[in-house]
């Protein structure tokens, strides 16, 4: 099937600085894609190229097969929601949302009808008569969303739309926004530098690094099987265990002298903290174990992380709740790696 949006070798640079390098990506109709990466990696530049505010020097951007690389923003069947909602302060919420259709030539009656529908979709059906300042930050953000979807674009671009909200509201809005997106069936491309936000919302995550796409995949795949060290470290907390070659197709890990069959080019093994366990009593037979010394304990309520030194390696061990919070630095413990949690990274 033809993707809704396709990016083919898109490159963009500013005054000698290469902001995007050969970006290739396809987005399907109705899909929720998160662009994730650290500050300066090119997320906003990519979004602006898709929106038409920037034109790439090379490469092609297509929507449903049509080349829109150089088309002006208003000719593209998409809309953008920015971090600042920029609502008209003197207009009612309903008029704010009806403004777009009115400008596009809809009658007042029709524009108001579509505004009502869009406001109902974002859960603000009762708020049309209010002025923006009489709404909370989260509600204002939803008005901005209603305004962006009122003309039913095929694709909505969202540039860190939740970053002005406090953490609790932000977490709630993530869930709401995901539900609204599913209900609308509009494809979303959502820029964020918050890996939890990307994991919580997206069907697929595009991890970017220095203007390139580092990996594209479902959140669970990115988390369990990061393609590179950068992805392993940017998405979640990894334990990276150096691996040295030990004959064809085998490597020795810097943990308990463990020797394993590994893919070609493996330079380290990654294991998430929840796949490292503190062994009390007899270890399960498939568990590779080593003795270590507790260095630190960080208990934040929902999860406790125990830092255990095993030789040159400090392993993070995650435990649910306050379990392990009473361990003292200096205590000797046995740690084990769950074999199913081991993932090998090349390079
Ligand atoms: P952030 O999360 O901080 O917004 P980002 O991943 O969205 O970062 P971009 O805004 O796309 O990053 O910027 C990518 C790179 O291009 C950065 O190094 C930035 O300084 C540079 N850049 C962006 N816009 C311009 C511009 N108009 N002129 C010159 N350099 C720019």
TrEMBL record:
<dbReference type="InterPro" id="IPR017871">
    <property type="entry name" value="ABC_transporter-like_CS"/>
</dbReference>
<dbReference type="InterPro" id="IPR008995">
    <property type="entry name" value="Mo/tungstate-bd_C_term_dom"/>
</dbReference>
<dbReference type="Pfam" id="PF08402">
    <property type="entry name" value="TOBE_2"/>
</dbReference>
<dbReference type="GO" id="GO:0043190">
    <property type="term" value="C:ATP-binding cassette (ABC) transporter complex"/>
</dbReference>
<protein>
    <submittedName>
        <fullName>ABC transporter ATP-binding protein</fullName>
    </submittedName>
</protein>
<dbReference type="GO" id="GO:0016887">
    <property type="term" value="F:ATP hydrolysis activity"/>
</dbReference>
<dbReference type="Pfam" id="PF00005">
    <property type="entry name" value="ABC_tran"/>
</dbReference>
<dbReference type="GO" id="GO:0022857">
    <property type="term" value="F:transmembrane transporter activity"/>
</dbReference>
<keyword id="KW-0813">Transport</keyword>
<dbReference type="InterPro" id="IPR050093">
    <property type="entry name" value="ABC_SmlMolc_Importer"/>
</dbReference>
<comment type="similarity">
    <text>Belongs to the ABC transporter superfamily.</text>
</comment>
<keyword id="KW-0067">ATP-binding</keyword>
<dbReference type="InterPro" id="IPR003439">
    <property type="entry name" value="ABC_transporter-like_ATP-bd"/>
</dbReference>
<dbReference type="GO" id="GO:0015847">
    <property type="term" value="P:putrescine transport"/>
</dbReference>
<dbReference type="GO" id="GO:0005524">
    <property type="term" value="F:ATP binding"/>
</dbReference>
<dbReference type="InterPro" id="IPR003593">
    <property type="entry name" value="AAA+_ATPase"/>
</dbReference>
<dbReference type="InterPro" id="IPR027417">
    <property type="entry name" value="P-loop_NTPase"/>
</dbReference>
<keyword id="KW-0547">Nucleotide-binding</keyword>
<dbReference type="InterPro" id="IPR013611">
    <property type="entry name" value="Transp-assoc_OB_typ2"/>
</dbReference>
<feature type="domain" description="ABC transporter">
    <location>
        <begin position="5"/>
        <end position="235"/>
    </location>
</feature>
